């Protein structure tokens, strides 16, 4: 038993995203979405980065999101497994194009609303609080083709209508909301992050930051609407977290790390503080960015979030000499390889202390409760002859990160809860692989979509059940 404690009422659970789990990509009236256009294989990264335009599907490619792990048909079975582990919170997302297939309709798709009502009611049946992301790397393709996605100001109104629909349709079922998942990934993976595709010769910084402004205004509007619909609603922003360490104590490296941190925190600075940070003026000037802002935008942005949520998988390293050749290709957020920490099978640094550092920094900066909504280890799992899966490496990773989170709480950081990423194996957003597994529950599915989709419990399933039952005190194997 650990001497570290978690507060009473701490929310324990897991997380997934509609686009990586649901499948049923044209069922129930759902429209095509950005992730449906991202193939498995060599073309995946150019499409994700917005460098290769994909406005139609191809017969010669495999699209992992189209069936994913079939959560759309199996959610009752999957939620029962979560309840067996003792989840008190389940983070998922709503696929925008299930409610508004094209994105710009005046009225929502009733079938889509019925699906999510049933999903959230199933959670409530087991005493599980849904934590719901409105936009998790998921833009209706019609909005991309017709309007240029978030580069267009009209998106703010479309998103506000969608958000209001969600808050009203699921009032009484959902009280914890997130606006945009890992909003800072817009800068690093523009198509998967925000549906952006670039034209030859245009200033990509201008496009990305203008799109970011529209998302920030939309997020603030959604926050205001959520509080209008029900003052008990709590709305958070969501950051792809992880501090940048200076490569050395050379002042230029320290400055490079600070700038890299600001690049990622820029969005949360606006969402948590209600205004653009002072450093934005120089940032925009140096990148040749001139934001178009409506007269009311500054007032709208004042509707700041109630809490700050974030993902944490790894810390990062930066130096003044960073370039494409010396930075890791393991993640869209580029980093130098830290020689002082171990790495996962996919090259991501394993750094539990980095979580404590990140959490202290974020609370020092924002003074709002934190919610760790993604944390996990992508690894290859082996199914033994007897069907068991002994994922001790995953248990070790999660144990050390839970300890670090407890230490941050002991440091005085208020933390609402913890949802591990990919509580059930799902399609990896970065690579499109099923073999990059995160879950406590194994899904029989391979990288090319073959397999029965049958679910089975890993060793970590039973371990996490004990963690939850003890409110984080029992972290033993």
Automatic annotation (TrEMBL):
Q: Which GO terms describe its cellular component?
A: cytosol
Biological processes per GO annotation? carbohydrate catabolic process
In terms of PROSITE patterns, this protein maps to:
GLYCOSYL_HYDROL_F1_1, GLYCOSYL_HYDROL_F1_2
| SUPFAM superfamilies on file | (Trans)glycosidases (SSF51445)
Active-site residues, record numbering mapped to chain: 374
Q: Does the keyword Disulfide bond apply?
A: no
Q: Which domain of life is it from?
A: Bacteria
**Residues annotated as transmembrane:** none
Any one GO MF annotation of this record: beta-glucosidase activity
Stored Gene3D superfamilies: Glycosidases
Query: Which keywords annotate this record?
Result: Glycosidase, Hydrolase
What NCBIfam families does the entry give? PRK09593.1, PRK09852.1
Report the sequence similarity comment from the record.
Belongs to the glycosyl hydrolase 1 family.
This protein is called what?
A: 6-phospho-beta-glucosidase
Query: What's the source species for this entry?
Result: Pantoea latae
The lineage is: Bacteria, Pseudomonadati, Pseudomonadota, Gammaproteobacteria, Enterobacterales
């Amino acid at each position: 038993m650990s001497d570290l404690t978690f507060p009473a009422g701490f929310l324990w659970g897991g997380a997934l995203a509609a686009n990586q789990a649901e499948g049923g990509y044209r069922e129930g009236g759902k429209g095509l979405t950005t992730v449906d256009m991202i193939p498995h294989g060599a073309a995946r990264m150019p499409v994700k980065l917005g460098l290769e335009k994909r406005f139609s599907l191809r017969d010669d490619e495999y699209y992992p999101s189209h069936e994913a792990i079939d959560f759309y048909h199996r959610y009752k079975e999957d939620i029962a497994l979560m309840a067996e582990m003792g989840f008190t919170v389940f983070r998922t997302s709503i696929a925008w194009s299930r409610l508004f297939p094209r994105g710009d309709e005046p009225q929502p798709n009733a079938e889509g609303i019925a699906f999510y009502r049933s999903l959230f009611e199933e959670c409530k049946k087991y005493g599980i609080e849904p934590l719901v992301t409105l936009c998790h790397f998921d833009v209706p393709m019609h909005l991309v083709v017709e309007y240029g996605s978030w580069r267009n100001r009209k998106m703010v109104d479309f998103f506000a209508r969608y958000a209001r629909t969600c808050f009203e349709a699921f009032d009484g079922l959902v009280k914890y909301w997130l606006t945009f998942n890992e909003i800072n990934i817009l800068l690093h993976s523009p198509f998967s992050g925000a549906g952006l595709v670039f034209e030859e010769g245009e200033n990509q910084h201008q496009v990305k930051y203008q799109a970011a402004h529209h998302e920030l205004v939309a997020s603030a509007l959604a926050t205001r609407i959520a509080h209008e619909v029900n003052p008990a609603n709590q709305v958070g922003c969501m950051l792809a977290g992880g501090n940048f360490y200076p490569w050395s104590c050379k002042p230029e490296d320290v400055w490079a790390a600070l700038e890299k941190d600001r690049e990622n925190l820029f969005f949360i600075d606006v969402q948590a503080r209600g205004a653009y940070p002072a450093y934005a003026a120089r940032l925009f000037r140096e990148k040749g960015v001139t934001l178009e802002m409506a007269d009311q935008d500054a007032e709208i942005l004042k509707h700041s979030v109630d809490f700050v949520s974030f993902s944490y998988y790894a810390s990062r390293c930066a130096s003044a000499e960073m370039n494409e050749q010396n930075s890791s290709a393991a993640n869209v957020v580029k980093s130098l390889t830290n020689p002082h920490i171990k790495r996962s099978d996919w090259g991501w640094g394993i750094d539990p202390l980095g979580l404590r550092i990140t959490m202290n920094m974020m609370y020092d900066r924002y003074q709002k409760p934190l919610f760790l909504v993604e944390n996990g280890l992508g690894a290859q799992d082996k199914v033994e002859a007897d069907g068991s899966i002994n994922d001790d490496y995953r248990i070790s990773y999660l144990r050390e990160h839970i300890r670090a989170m407890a230490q941050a709480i002991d440091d005085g950081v208020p933390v609402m809860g913890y949802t591990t990423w990919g509580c059930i194996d799902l399609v990896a957003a970065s690579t499109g692989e099923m073999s990059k597994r995160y879950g406590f529950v194994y899904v029989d599915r391979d990288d090319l979509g073959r397999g029965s989709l049958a679910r089975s419990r890993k060793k970590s399933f039973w371990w996490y059940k004990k963690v939850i039952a003890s409110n984080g005190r029992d972290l033993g194997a």
